[in-house]
Amino acid sequence: MSEQRSVSGESQRSVLARLHLRGTPREGLLAGTWGFFIGFAAVALYGPAAHSFQVSMHLSPALVGLLVAAPQLTGSLLRIPFGAWVDKSGGRLPMLTLFGASIVGMWGLVFILVTAPSAGAAIYPLVVLFGFLSGCSVASFSVGIPQVSYWFPRDRQGTVLGTYGGVGNLAPGLFTFALPFAIGALGLPGSYLAWLAFLLIGSVVYLRIAVDAPYFQLRARGESEEKAQELAAETGQELFPAGSAWGALLLAADEPRTWGLVFLYFVSFGGFLALTAWFPTYWINLHQFGPEAAGVLGGVGFSILAALARVAGGPISERAGGERLALAAFALVVAGAAVLTTVASFAADLAGELVIALGMGLANAAVFKMVPKYVPHAVGGASGLIGGFGAFGGFAIPPVLGLFAAALGARGYAGGFFVYVVLGVTAAGVAGAFARAASRMRA
User: Fold this and answer.
1) How many angstroms separate the CA atoms of 401 and 298, rounded?
2) According to the model, what pLDDT value does residue 4 have?
3) What are the helix and strand counts (H, E) for the chain?
4) Domain that holds residue 322
5) Is the pLDDT score of 242 beyond 70?
6) Any idea what the CATH number is for the domain that residue 168 is in?
7) Mean pLDDT computed over 331-338
8) Residue 233 domain flag
9) CA–CA distance, 151 with 318 (Å, rounded to integer)
10) What is the CA radius of gyration of the chain?
11) How many CB atoms within 10 Å of residue 143?
12) Residue 119 — φ and ψ, nearest 5°?
């Protein structure tokens, strides 16, 4: 049980006012969630448009896999240093830095599409490059996690982080759904120009509403670390960073259980990123749907369902425990992937997609319920490692799925899901080990 003094909502506002601190936990959750939402949309940067790029640039399935995965590489690797940076300065500055890099990438993409619309395969390297840059904002996840966590007590982490992750995760689904319709109405250049406008406006809104937790406001005011923790504790803040940003990474890396959580997140969240980008291609090439229908199936059928499941997974993880929820969730992932691997009928494959979406969403919530429990001394560093290496699955898996398609033809779009069967079974084993450890801790 925390030794920090808890406060009621009313007295908390009074303490914040007395200390001349901005914001409330609710405002901290709103700002972090909004930042994550506008940044995380870049997960769907190329997936819904992959068929258009494939036709215009004459790409092989393997090159399509690399293209849709491009935003995930920078979005995953930057999570590590940016998640740790939060422990040093709070989340506002790291989040705005990521938005700046993404705006540069999106502007470059619009520029090349406008100035060289008929260049074909010659612009492929530039499109991939600007995908890397645009994907920087995907790293907003590991910034927002500690930004929100530091506002709330330990016993509310599951609910608030489930809400944060679920609402933020809606963005790729909404963009996967909307982008094919935008391309049909505005063309590729016009669609990405509209996206650039959205990113610019969203960044300005975040700049206006973002507020860091009390500890970071006090540190920015010049208070010593000890005094800042003492005063912040009066507001109800329970979680505090331990040492420097890189020290937080090292502390988290030195905890073996961090790496178990990394693997679970590689399968659940990395898998979510990969399939958000891949499912439109899957539905077009295996089942011969048009881009708009494929966007609906991939955006609503998979991505949005997984996001809503993540919201529900927060409260469930608080009642049942993150470990047990993770074990059940990965069983669903295995079941859904097995159907997608072996069956080629629309009804069965849609059911498989929905089951795997439900499993991944619940697993995502379960993993980050476990972070403050197993790495309470370095939440930001652990968030960076888990979010970074875990989300690397979003970059690593799509090219592998593309290799299956290149080797086996259209049938390979189904066969590639065997990768998820193997990953899901292994993740269920790791989740089971966490569940047994939790049982020993309670005994």
Assistant:
1) 16
2) 41
3) 21, 0
4) 24-210+242-442
5) no
6) 1.20.1250.20
7) 96
8) no
9) 18
10) 21
11) 33
12) -75, -15
Secondary structure (3-state) at 16: helix
Alpha helices in 237-296 (DSSP H): 245-253, 256-287, 291-296
CB-CB neighbours of 13 under 10 Å = 13
Tell me the percentage of the chain whose pLDDT exceeds 90.
36
Output the pLDDT for position 22: 84
98: closest CA among 88, 115, 116, 86?
86
pLDDT at 386 exceeding the cut of 80: yes
- Give the Cα separation of 289 and 174 in Å (integer): 19
For residue 118, being part of any structural domain is answered with yes
pLDDT on residue 6: 46
> 145-181, pLDDT tens digit by residue?
888 989 888 778 777 877 887 788 789 889 988 999 9
How many Cβ atoms are within 10 Å of 412's Cβ, its own excluded?
18
The number of domains in the chain is 1
Q: The dihedral of CA 29, 34, 39, 41: what is its sign?
A: positive
Return the ∠ at Cα 72 (arms to 68 and 78), rounded to 5°: 160
**pLDDT for 120 beyond 90:** no
Query: For residue 335, what are the contacts with CB-CB under 8 A and spacing of at least 6?
Result: 352, 355, 356, 359
The type of residue at 426 is T
C-alpha distances (whole Å) from 138 to each of 79, 158, 268 are 8, 22, 16
Domain presence at residue 417:
yes
Residue type, 65: G
Rounded alpha-carbon distances, angstroms, from residue 226 to 1, 231, 342 = 21, 9, 59
User: Has residue 2 got a pLDDT over 50?
Assistant: no
